[in-house]
């Protein structure tokens, strides 16, 4: 009832254990706390919180306009309703290395399982857009070292994201990944990889967990879980997929309202009220206080 029954420490420890096992973990993107709870109910391994989704939720483009307080607050809201570990997109760390350090501690306090810091310049842009610019090796390394030095819980996962593949090619991405691991990164997120062979090359280059980003309409082909497992990936995210699907359904429903003036023909596409109440666990609140849930929802 209310929030997760699993402690933050246990979530982080479990995430570390599963990453160490070498299995492939599936982290769909949650666009709000309720969707995070649905991800857990459907048996996934964790929740991903996308910076692009957080920006879109505020009606903003993904170009570094969100603030640390906005990201940490939304991350806290999502992480605390699920027993699954949540990994959050911390963009470039919201500033210089000292800002990166504060970012990590704020996200630790918010109950996240981990975060990734990227090597784009400020202001950043979506990882699958053209024209990205990345910082030099020294700046990228300083960001990760600051994150590692600031961490208080050793199980908080610090992931380094590199966007250099799109800007300078695969060899540069392999070199950057190695440097970021040497700087202390627990895992690597190689953005905008184009082929399975590129993922395999990254797997051969570094000996830490690797994340594959399966975002639609981007630079990467949409590989299956089995394909990514076969080339040694440890995490796969679908960062914006659930938001895209939800917004697509919302647009179609609004069009139907405009065309027919009602939604009677859309009922089979909606989550039933009974299912929503079940997901919200109304009955647990009833056990706590019988005055809260003293009715029956008919299907």
UniProtKB/TrEMBL annotation:
GO molecular function, a single term: methylisocitrate lyase activity
Reaction(s) catalysed (UniProt annotation): (2S,3R)-3-hydroxybutane-1,2,3-tricarboxylate = pyruvate + succinate
Enzyme type, top EC level: lyase
Pathway as given in its UniProt record: Organic acid metabolism; propanoate degradation
Domain of life assignment: Bacteria
Record EC number: 4.1.3.30
SUPFAM superfamilies registered for this protein in UniProt: Phosphoenolpyruvate/pyruvate domain (SSF51621)
Cofactor(s) listed: Mg(2+)
Keywords on record: Lyase, Magnesium, Metal-binding
Family membership: Belongs to the isocitrate lyase/PEP mutase superfamily. Methylisocitrate lyase family.
Function of the molecule: Catalyzes the thermodynamically favored C-C bond cleavage of (2R,3S)-2-methylisocitrate to yield pyruvate and succinate.
NCBIfam families in the cross-refs: prpB
UniProt-recorded name of the protein: Methylisocitrate lyase
UniProt organism field: Gulosibacter faecalis
Gene from which this protein is expressed: prpB
